[in-house]
Amino acid sequence: MKKKHVEVWDNILAVIKDNIPLQSFQTWFVPIVPLKLENNILTIQVPSHFFYEWLEEHYINLLKKTIKKELGATGRLEYSIIVENSNYGRRGHSVKYPTSNKKAVQNRPVNMPVNLGRSKEIPNPFIIPGLKKIKVESQLVESYSFDNFVEGDCNRLARSAGWAVSENPGKTAFNPLFVYSQTGLGKTHLAHAIGLQVKNNFPEKVVLYVQTEQFINQFIDSVRNNNQNDFVHFYQMIDVLILDDIQFLAGKEKTQDVFFHVFNHLHQNNKQIIITSDKPPVELKGMEPRLLSRFKWGLAADLQVPDLETRMAILQKKLYTDGIEMPYEVIEYLAYSITTNIREMEGALISIMAQSSLNKKKVTLDLARQMIDKFVKSTVREISIDYIQKVVCDYFNLPVEAINSKTRKREIVQARQLAMFFSKKHTKNSLATIGIHCGNKDHATVLHAVKTINNLMETDKQFKVYVEDIDRKLKM
Ligand code: ADP
Ligand code: MG
């Protein structure tokens, strides 16, 4: 039987689908996941803040009407917004899913300890006594398949190793399979593809995809609820464990410890482990050596930035899968303009489609140009005071804390002055704010620092080279 909130949402979708163009429906409504219905409030999950604003701006009346129709006059709608994966180091709200994904709708976790202790409606599978194999929802996203994963020089090794693993999980030399790359280059997609393919080949195998942050949160909850053993046993029961973004384990000693035990158990029993990370094992910081050494047991394969041809192929594949047509020149323009991150390239594609369906304009090169210019501009990274301090300190090999310390050592005073100088140059912060963040100084100190640096640059050639060097690094 369908859960009530899913049923309600399905009914709402049916009405909306009849009232807006198909392309808009696909862009803005299909990716939404209904989460719960409580006190006549329907909560839906949307992939980003931008998405939420768009819905509120363009579809609020339609949504209101349909909600009223389904839930009566007291019915309400609430949004839950997914936090972008790229916010490393920061905890997001609730659970994160791969963004912009349609099939995720059907793949919500039901029987997993994902929301343990957070949401009462999800049963805790640990407490089912006497059950050997509990049903595990794999959390795999259907559209992240091998079929949809375009092959190129950039991913050949990782892809073929992944394929081999899915043909023979736990029995190849690639255990663990460790996939690493910068963000937005397909780690999560490939990890899901392997999991899906295992499910195809071996339907009885228990496959679990879990984001490292989920794993950490579950572990914390299990400590709180005093059922750590159940947590460990649950994970030891998995045949193919996929842990995404392992870099989040940095500094989390207790969780690393427990993962170490899970890892050993799985590995000894020829179960497959797949790990993704934003860095190769050797560069991971804050990780226990014994865990790192295990990461090197199998194969570490990276995903690189795809070349133009592969980027075009990825866009074409996506359009084809979604049943959308677009002029070749537009695709080419997109692939030319956005070069380093596939997720951003896809994001631009979605914006173009949205814009065209909204204004009922045809997708033309002009429209694409306008959108991409906007897009590229809005994703330009803001340089923050924190970031400036880090770059300056890295440059001189000083700990970042030094800037905020009371010390008057010459090199540290100079680093502090440089941080102030660049903060004035690159941020919109006031002198007072910059002062507070750079060693709790006042605005006059900042002003003095800016003058000092300018003077030094005029009189000292070597110093000028340093400053220019740092400036370049800041803009990288
Ligand atoms: P990462 O986990 O490395 O940050 P993702 O797996 O989330 O990256 O990929 C970002 C987006 O790019 C996803 O929508 C994914 O489907 C797409 N993508 C990445 N690589 C490929 C590829 N080789 N073929 C097709 N789509 C890809
Ligand atoms: Mg990812």
Summarize this, please?
The chain has 476 residues and is of the alpha/beta class.
Structural write-up:
- The chain is α/β, with parallel strands linked by helices and 476 residues long.
- It has four domains: 5-113, GMP Synthetase, Chain A, domain 3 (2-Layer Sandwich), CATH 3.30.300.180; 156-302, Rossmann fold (3-Layer(aba) Sandwich), CATH 3.40.50; 308-376, Helicase, Ruva Protein, domain 3 (Orthogonal Bundle), CATH 1.10.8.60; 385-475, Chromosomal Replication Initiator Protein Dnaa, Chain: A.
- The chain is 51% helix and 9% strand.
- It contains 20 helices and eight strands.
- It has helices spanning 4-19, 22-28, 49-58, 60-71, 156-167, 187-201, 212-224, 228-236, 253-268, 289-295, 308-322, 328-337, 342-358, 365-378, 385-396, 401-404, 410-426, 431-437, 443-459, 461-475, and strands at 33-38, 41-46, 76-81, 177-180, 207-211, 240-244, 272-277, 299-302.
- The strands form two sheets. The protein has a five-stranded parallel β-sheet with strand order 5-6-7-4-8, with helices on both faces. A three-stranded mixed β-sheet has the order 1-2-3.
- β1 and β2 (41-46) form a beta hairpin.
- α5 runs parallel beside α6 (187-201), α11 (308-322) packs across α13 (342-358) and α18 crosses α19.
- The radius of gyration is 25 Å and the shape is globular.
- 35% of the residues are buried.
- Residues 84-133 have low confidence and may be disordered.
- The structure holds adenosine-5'-diphosphate and magnesium ion (MG).
- Residues 85, 187-188, 244-245 line the site of magnesium ion.
